[in-house]
Amino acid sequence: MNQRISKIAATAAFILAGVSAGAHAADIDNGKNLVTTHNCSACHGATLNNPVSPEYPKLAGQFNDYIFFALRSYQVGGGNPLFGRNNAIMAAQVQGLSESDLRDIAAYIQSLPGDLVQKK
Protein backbone atom coordinates (compact mmCIF):
# COMPACT_ATOMS: atom_id res chain seq x y z
CA MET A 1 0.00 0.00 0.00
CA ASN A 2 2.78 2.46 0.93
CA GLN A 3 4.54 1.69 -2.35
CA ARG A 4 1.36 2.52 -4.25
CA ILE A 5 0.99 5.82 -2.36
CA SER A 6 4.64 6.61 -3.15
CA LYS A 7 4.02 5.97 -6.85
CA ILE A 8 0.95 8.21 -6.82
CA ALA A 9 2.88 10.96 -5.04
CA ALA A 10 5.75 10.66 -7.52
CA THR A 11 3.29 10.85 -10.40
CA ALA A 12 1.65 13.97 -8.98
CA ALA A 13 5.03 15.63 -8.37
CA PHE A 14 6.17 14.84 -11.91
CA ILE A 15 2.99 16.29 -13.43
CA LEU A 16 3.09 19.38 -11.23
CA ALA A 17 6.73 19.99 -12.12
CA GLY A 18 5.78 19.91 -15.79
CA VAL A 19 2.83 22.25 -15.26
CA SER A 20 4.82 24.75 -13.20
CA ALA A 21 7.60 24.80 -15.78
CA GLY A 22 5.00 25.34 -18.51
CA ALA A 23 5.07 29.09 -17.87
CA HIS A 24 8.62 29.20 -19.28
CA ALA A 25 8.77 30.73 -22.74
CA ALA A 26 11.09 28.44 -24.66
CA ASP A 27 14.27 29.92 -26.09
CA ILE A 28 14.93 28.24 -29.45
CA ASP A 29 18.41 29.78 -29.72
CA ASN A 30 19.40 28.32 -26.35
CA GLY A 31 17.92 24.98 -27.46
CA LYS A 32 20.05 25.05 -30.62
CA ASN A 33 23.15 25.84 -28.55
CA LEU A 34 22.40 22.99 -26.13
CA VAL A 35 21.81 20.52 -28.97
CA THR A 36 25.16 21.54 -30.45
CA THR A 37 27.14 21.47 -27.20
CA HIS A 38 25.65 18.12 -26.17
CA ASN A 39 26.50 16.69 -29.61
CA CYS A 40 23.03 15.29 -30.29
CA SER A 41 23.99 14.94 -33.95
CA ALA A 42 26.48 12.18 -33.08
CA CYS A 43 23.54 9.76 -32.85
CA HIS A 44 20.56 11.58 -34.37
CA GLY A 45 22.37 12.98 -37.42
CA ALA A 46 23.41 16.48 -38.47
CA THR A 47 19.82 17.63 -39.05
CA LEU A 48 18.37 15.47 -36.25
CA ASN A 49 16.40 13.83 -39.06
CA ASN A 50 18.93 11.26 -40.26
CA PRO A 51 20.10 9.05 -37.37
CA VAL A 52 23.41 7.26 -37.74
CA SER A 53 21.70 3.96 -36.88
CA PRO A 54 18.11 2.73 -37.27
CA GLU A 55 17.63 2.26 -33.52
CA TYR A 56 18.00 6.02 -32.94
CA PRO A 57 14.86 8.08 -33.57
CA LYS A 58 14.37 10.92 -36.00
CA LEU A 59 13.76 13.99 -33.87
CA ALA A 60 13.35 16.95 -36.24
CA GLY A 61 9.80 18.27 -36.27
CA GLN A 62 8.65 16.13 -33.35
CA PHE A 63 6.15 17.78 -30.98
CA ASN A 64 7.92 19.78 -28.28
CA ASP A 65 5.76 18.29 -25.48
CA TYR A 66 6.79 14.79 -26.51
CA ILE A 67 10.48 15.70 -26.67
CA PHE A 68 10.32 17.44 -23.28
CA PHE A 69 8.59 14.46 -21.68
CA ALA A 70 11.08 12.00 -23.21
CA LEU A 71 14.09 14.03 -22.06
CA ARG A 72 12.61 14.46 -18.59
CA SER A 73 11.97 10.71 -18.45
CA TYR A 74 15.66 10.05 -19.16
CA GLN A 75 16.52 12.35 -16.24
CA VAL A 76 14.24 10.39 -13.93
CA GLY A 77 15.78 7.15 -15.17
CA GLY A 78 14.79 3.53 -15.03
CA GLY A 79 14.34 3.60 -11.26
CA ASN A 80 10.85 5.02 -11.73
CA PRO A 81 8.78 2.47 -13.67
CA LEU A 82 5.95 4.95 -14.24
CA PHE A 83 7.96 7.66 -15.99
CA GLY A 84 11.59 6.66 -16.24
CA ARG A 85 13.37 5.70 -19.40
CA ASN A 86 16.45 3.56 -19.11
CA ASN A 87 19.21 4.52 -21.54
CA ALA A 88 22.68 5.23 -20.15
CA ILE A 89 23.75 7.51 -23.00
CA MET A 90 20.64 9.70 -22.90
CA ALA A 91 20.60 9.78 -19.10
CA ALA A 92 24.17 11.08 -19.07
CA GLN A 93 23.32 13.70 -21.70
CA VAL A 94 20.42 15.23 -19.77
CA GLN A 95 21.45 14.91 -16.11
CA GLY A 96 22.95 18.39 -15.87
CA LEU A 97 20.14 20.16 -17.69
CA SER A 98 17.37 22.18 -16.08
CA GLU A 99 13.72 21.77 -17.03
CA SER A 100 14.03 25.13 -18.77
CA ASP A 101 16.90 23.75 -20.85
CA LEU A 102 14.81 20.70 -21.75
CA ARG A 103 11.95 22.94 -22.92
CA ASP A 104 14.38 25.01 -24.99
CA ILE A 105 15.78 21.87 -26.64
CA ALA A 106 12.25 20.61 -27.30
CA ALA A 107 11.21 23.92 -28.89
CA TYR A 108 14.29 23.92 -31.11
CA ILE A 109 13.73 20.33 -32.23
CA GLN A 110 10.07 21.07 -33.05
CA SER A 111 11.17 24.05 -35.16
CA LEU A 112 13.33 21.86 -37.41
CA PRO A 113 11.96 20.53 -40.70
CA GLY A 114 11.44 16.80 -40.49
CA ASP A 115 9.75 14.03 -42.37
CA LEU A 116 7.65 12.60 -39.58
CA VAL A 117 4.15 11.82 -40.81
CA GLN A 118 1.00 12.55 -38.85
CA LYS A 119 -2.05 10.43 -39.54
CA LYS A 120 -5.24 12.40 -40.07
UniProtKB/TrEMBL annotation:
Transmembrane segments: none annotated. Keywords: Electron transport, Heme, Iron, Metal-binding, Signal, Transport. Gene3D superfamilies: Cytochrome c-like domain. Residues 1-25 form the signal peptide. GO terms for molecular function: electron transfer activity; heme binding; metal ion binding. PANTHER family: CBB3-TYPE CYTOCHROME C OXIDASE SUBUNIT FIXP, CYTOCHROME C4. Pfam families: Cytochrom_C. The lineage of its organism: Bacteria, Pseudomonadati, Pseudomonadota, Betaproteobacteria, Burkholderiales. It comes from Pararobbsia silviterrae. Residues 26-113 form the Cytochrome c domain. InterPro entries: Cyt_c-like_dom, Cyt_c-like_dom_sf, Cytochrome_c_Oxidase_Subunit. This is Cytochrome c.
